[in-house]
Design brief:
alpha/beta, Arginase, Chain A, histone deacetylase activity, His_deacetylse_dom, HDACs, Histone deacetylase superfamily
Length: 321
């Protein structure tokens, strides 16, 4: 129907050229293909408009990362290194350029949202970002896509109070590093408890430091947690946002908490991702005048990744009302 909200997809075939060595590495190019296949063949196909990302500039990367890290990353790929710091962080010759393009996807998404308020934007991108620290990579992540998008939203559009809501199975340590001492930004993370899960951060008692005290909401879950436990967290998130009153919302949309994804011990279902999409739309309506940007993080079980993304996007545009 013509009045149904469209979905703006920010993606590029170039994302498949980030080489993680093949074999058993979970952060594989096939992740992009299974999402594309599902979205273009499923019930949302007629509602999707695709736009290309642009590379983040060096100045935009430096809003979170250090000059030293940019030089080290670039030098590593140009010299033919196959990973940086840890075998998890596999790279190929084009990985610096592709990571720069990945970081830029969110910037195009922000522009689309500001030009067309209420538009639903999803950045289908890799490599992911939420583990990346200012001066080093972690957990398949090289540049922190969510943080770079937040800085851009603040600087280009004066949306000072930006909140990131991250439901990837793993805590976004890099996002917390960026925001935990700031009064204007906020971070909400639903993740498997750090006692059981990488990277071992995201304790409930971590609530921010100094001017940022009270701006971090970590909601760790025990192994086996699913819809019942997650739905119980929604009122806590609303109470938190009642205090924060954000101007813009960025979602770190990870799908590795699905019960068949062996990257975590959580037990999310496809329908739970739909309900998370419903919830995000409600939050954007009630707190940010519809300004919400979703950026892909994890999700490694290829047989369900596309279905989970489709369910989340369905939840964003198809309310339960």
């Amino acid at each position: 129907m013509e009045n149904e909200p469209a979905i703006t997809l920010i993606t590029d075939p170039a994302f498949c050229r980030h080489d993680t060595g093949g074999g058993d590495h979970p952060e594989a190019p096939e992740r992009m293909q299974v999402i594309t296949d599902r979205l273009m063949q499923g019930h949302l196909a007629g509602r999707i408009r695709t736009f290309a990302p642009r590379p983040a500039t060096r100045a935009q990367l430096l809003t979170f990362h250090t000059e030293g890290w940019l030089f080290r990353f670039e030098e590593a790929v140009l010299s033919g290194r196959t990973y940086i710091d840890h075998p998890d962080n596999q790279v190929g010759y084009e990985s610096f350029d592709i990571a720069t393009l990945s970081a830029g996807a969110g910037l195009v998404g922000v522009d689309r949202i500001e030009r067309q308020p209420g538009t639903v934007v999803f950045c289908q991108t890799r490599p992911p970002g939420h583990h990346a620290e200012p001066n080093q990579p972690y957990g398949f992540c090289f540049f922190n896509n969510c943080v770079i998008a937040a800085r851009y939203w603040q600087q280009e559009y004066s949306r000072r109070r930006v909140c990131v809501f991250d439901f990837d199975a793993h805590h976004g340590n890099g996002i917390q590093t960026a925001f935990e001492q700031e009064a204007d930004t906020a971070y909400i993370s639903i993740h498997e408890h750090p006692s059981f899960s990488y990277p071992g951060t995201g304790w409930a008692e971590d609530k921010g430091v100094g001017p940022g005290k009270g701006t971090i909401l970590n909601l760790p879950l025990p192994p086996g947690a699913g819809a019942e436990q997650v739905l119980r967290l929604f009122p806590k998130i609303r109470n938190f946002l009642d205090t924060i009153r954000p101007d813009a919302l960025i979602v770190g949309a990870g799908f590795d908490a699905h019960r068949q994804d062996d990257m975590s011990g959580l037990a999310f279902t496809v329908d739970l991702y739909r309900r998370l999409g419903n919830f995000v739309t409600e939050l954007a309506r009630d707190y940010t005048q519809g300004r919400v940007l979703s950026i892909l993080e994890g999700g490694y079980f290829l047989e369900k990744l596309g279905v989970c993304v489709e369910a989340y996007l369905s939840g964003l545009v198809e309310t339960d009302e």
